[in-house]
């Protein structure tokens, strides 16, 4: 398998409506050992729906692109990172200045969960490299690394905390927390429901809710 395409809703498999196409994922590897390498995500509405590429995402396994993996890593390595870029790029030609985000994953191969992510400055000096915010995902109010094996399979994401600046896997500084978004829905169908925006400076920064 070299490619798979995803569409909104129910479509005719022999003649799918192109305007309903949401993404194309490209694979690398021999038959039976194919691994997702990169993907295109399309505009969903209006002119260019299903054809105009909005973003390109690249997957990393054990810190490597799939083309760099050894035979054993192709079989066993979990996806640990995903870089997303504005616009359409091919397998190896993305421009760093167009990078919008990096998401880090936790879990064994086939059970990876998004754990935290960086959002980058979009324009000017530092575009694609300077981290503006760090966000942490929660599943049944737990970070991915704290979930049981069963929870890793079934738990939906119910919360996301965003912080100003760059932080690592251990979490952000509470005074720099900007917002918390709460989600509703089963795993894979989560939708943002409501959010808190916190006071940014002084007493109560990161804990006092300014707006809901």
Description:
The chain is mostly beta strands and about 210 residues long. The protein has two helices and twelve strands. The chain has helices at about 70-75, 150-155; strands spanning about 5, 20-30, 35-40, 55-60, 80-85, 100-105, 115-120, 130-140, 155-165, 175-185, 190-200, 210. Strands 1-2-3-4-5-6-7-8-9-10-11-12 form a twelve-stranded antiparallel β-sheet, with no helix packed on it. The protein is globular. About 20% of the residues are buried. The model has no long low-confidence stretch (mean pLDDT about 95).
Report a brief summary of the structure:
This protein is mainly beta. It has two helices and twelve strands, in the order E-E-E-E-H-E-E-E-E-H-E-E-E-E.
Number of helices: 2
**Termini Cα gap:** 46 Å
Beta-strand portion reads 35-45%
Quote the average pLDDT.
95
Give, in spatial order, the strands making up the sheet with the most strands.
1-2-3-4-5-6-7-8-9-10-11-12
Helix coverage percent: under 10%
Radius of gyration: 19 Å
**Which regions are unreliable across 5 or more consecutive residues at pLDDT < 50?**
none
Judged by helices, strands and strand pairing, the structural class is mainly beta
Which term fits the overall shape?
globular
Q: State the major sheet.
A: 12 strands, antiparallel
Quaternary organisation of the protein chains: single chain
> What letter string, H or E per element, gives the SSE order?
EEEEHEEEEHEEEE
Question: How many distinct beta strands?
Answer: 12
